[in-house]
Design a protein that fits this description.
Length: 206
Amino acid sequence: MASNENNAFFQWFETISIITGTVIGVLAGAIKIFGKKDSVKENKQFIQVHTEIHETLTELRIKTDSARVQIIQFHNGEYFMDGVSMRKFSLTHESLARGMSADASRIKSLLCSMFLPLLNYIIEDDAKLIDVEKMPHSFCKQFFEDNNVEGFSVLPIKIKNQITGFLLIQWCNGMKFEYLKPFDIEELMESARSAIEVQLASQKKG
């Protein structure tokens, strides 16, 4: 009698184990599938957002006949000995005219403290044309000259009213820069900046 009860118990236990294992397997498979779907969705959203940003930059570059149009974003780096964070910026997006060298390797984790004239222009929030030759001598001016930049225009990029980076447009041909119409450039810059802010904000939400 006891033997029959033990056999029944073990059969019941085995059945429960099989059912439990099956349920766990199904749940694990479902989580894995849905996880993959979320990952694919995130990747597609990432690609879409940054494709749109690049298209905005390229459109701005073509309309302004410029050499480079860039998005540069602020970030924290290492820390100084007193614990203060090193404020830096890096190039994250760029559209280049044919024959122009890319800036990805040059504008990477650069200290903001070395570019105070540029930061002042960013804070002004004015897309005016800036002649590099007329800038006071500084590391910032030398940085532009080393890359054959004749003039530029810059606007801050804001997310939730906080400056997170800037839109920078460069001209490397003096003749082109000399005959630019400031009002047209400002209008185009502000329009592109607005589109980029929306695009970057949507990425953050995602």
